Amino acid sequence: MTKPEDPNRVLIFDTTLRDGEQSPGISLNTQEKLEIAGQLARLGVDVIEAGFPITSPGDFEAVQAIARTVEGPVIAGLARTHVADIDAAWNAVKDAPRPRIHTFISTSDIHIEYQLQTTREDVKGQARAAVAHAKQYLDDVEFSPMDATRADVEFTAEVCQIAIDEGATTVNIPDTVGYTMPHEYSAFLTRLYELVPGLRDVVLSVHCHDDLGLAVANSFAGVRAGARQVECAINGIGERAGNASLEEIVMLLHTRQADIGLHTGVNTREIARTSRLVSRLTGYSVQPNKAIIGRNAFAHESGIHQDGVLKERTTYEIMDATTVGLEANSIVLGKHSGRHALQQALAELGFEVSGQTLNTAFKRFKEIADKKKQVTAMDLEALLTDELRGEVVGYQLEWFDVEASSRRPPHATVGIRTPEGEEVTGSFTGDGPVDAIFRAINAATGSEAKLREFRVDAVTGGQDALGETSVVLELGGVTGSGQGVSTDILEAAGRAYVRALSSAVRRQGVTAEAEAATEAAPEPISAP
Ligand code: KIV
Ligand code: ZN
Q1: Is 498's pLDDT higher than 80?
Q2: How far, in Å, from the CA of 461 to the mean position of ligand 1?
Q3: Beta-carbon count within 10 A of 510 CB
Q4: pLDDT confidence of residue 346
Q5: CA of 261 to the centre of ligand 1 (A)
Q6: Residue 377: which of 337, 335, 327 has the closest Cα?
Q7: CA-closest residue to ligand 1 atom 4
Q8: Which of 19, 111, 229 to mutate to test the pocket of ligand 1 (most atoms within 8 A of CB)?
Q9: CA-to-CA distance for 526 and 82, rounded, in angstroms?
Q10: What angle do CA 312, 315, 317 make, to 5 degrees?
Q11: Closest CA to 349 of 315, 308, 383
Q12: What's residue 363's pLDDT?
């Protein structure tokens, strides 16, 4: 990607599917990644970092599928400086209309000495070789000196100079462990500009982690210092405390544009929907008071505030909720709505569905419309995301019976369809009806999964609201997360549990694949 001519344009590089997917418990399959990537394209991000192709065949396949189908953004694949990594990244992204290879190596002594167990000279050599190798394949090459903010700035500058000499078109300065402070990061970048004048001819990028809660503040400081690409993730997901949150940095630049003078290409009205999709598919809920997309971000509790907002919205609101796509809940369907009306309503929500998916969605819609007078856009969105998730290969909840009473322990029996297509059943008497269902699922599948988190939310307000449940469980040291949607909380809980179980089983397979690859690889494949 060439540097935009407009000096005030900030490129948004979304890493939800790469750094974001490295969050504990998140394991998205190709279909889910495609769904998120399509929505990121609608959101108008400039670059989608679709994955780290060398890490597993599943990651490779997902990056390739995104490169082949998602139009608009540049599609990037991550690679260490090894030839095999770069070749895998290239093979995964090469069918994209605008592919990118993002290669990285640490420049901090702490990483060089303890993790890479090598020397600064070797790091320079590896950076040079990696960028040169990637450049044989394509023009758009990004280079990151990992852990830069804890590294010697002079040495990092030398490595960046090498990357630029070899043709890197974007240089990204990561605050890998979320250690830096805004004034320090800004000074670091300013010094880099002094030491590497060629940085002005490429795109300078920032990538900040949130370990001290400063990821957005640091990214903003970086932009003020001259960076014109921000690496960020939807809902701020990512390694440990996460990455800079896309919605926060974008809305900061948008809301204060008159003062800052910078802008992005993001369609802010797609923010809320993207956030909901990512939250549903990853199982990572958004805290209620989260800036921009938390359910309370535009709620006013105090009487004085409510009074002010009723008189004039701007008394207590610096943004209009509709600007981020909240309160766009106008579609309403009922039990008499037909298949075509459903298809159209879904298209308005950005879901192009037909064939079997439409049939299943229609069947679920009818079931829900029978129980709920009005089915809103939020309901449809929850329902469809649930259906798309249902296509995941794994266990399926076929049916369940629960006997609940305050006078004797609840008893559940479940029927589960295994990935091989066989129906297995299991029963359990638990502490509560949900516990009984979860343990009956364990009994049916012969697994020893342990529940770590369970949450129930209502998709919309009202007594007949759809319930959305979220489960995180642990299976043999691996976590899995899943969600379920239904008018019946117990059914939603059961669905969420089998999905979390399927996800944990899949993750166990990925870990085994990575371990097998490690035996062949020169050093462990550790996600940055
Ligand atoms: O945090 C980090 O340093 C990374 C790099 C790969 C950019 O994720
Ligand atoms: Zn990172």
Answers
A1: yes
A2: 40
A3: 16
A4: 85
A5: 28
A6: 327
A7: 528
A8: 19
A9: 13
A10: 100
A11: 383
A12: 87
Which stretches of 340-408 are assigned E, i.e. beta strand?
375-376, 396-403
The tens digit of pLDDT for each residue in 409-460 reads: 999 999 999 989 999 999 999 899 999 999 999 999 999 999 998 989 888 7
* Tokens standing for residue 448: 């020893």
Measured from the Cα of 144, ligand 1's closest atom is: 7
Beta strands in 55-169 (DSSP E): 74-79, 99-106, 141-146
Stronger pLDDT, 202 or 504, i.e. the higher one: 202
In angstroms, the Cα distances linking 266 to 24, 33, 238 are: 28, 20, 20
Q: Is the CB of 528 under 6 A from ligand 1?
A: yes
- Tokens coding 508: 């166990």
Per-residue pLDDT reduced to its tens digit, 346-364:
887 778 888 888 888 888 8
Residues 6+ apart with CB under 8 A from 67: 50, 75, 77, 92, 93, 94, 95, 96, 99
User: Which residues are paired to 103 by β-bridges?
Assistant: 79, 143
Determine the atom of ligand 1 nearest the C-alpha atom of 243: 1
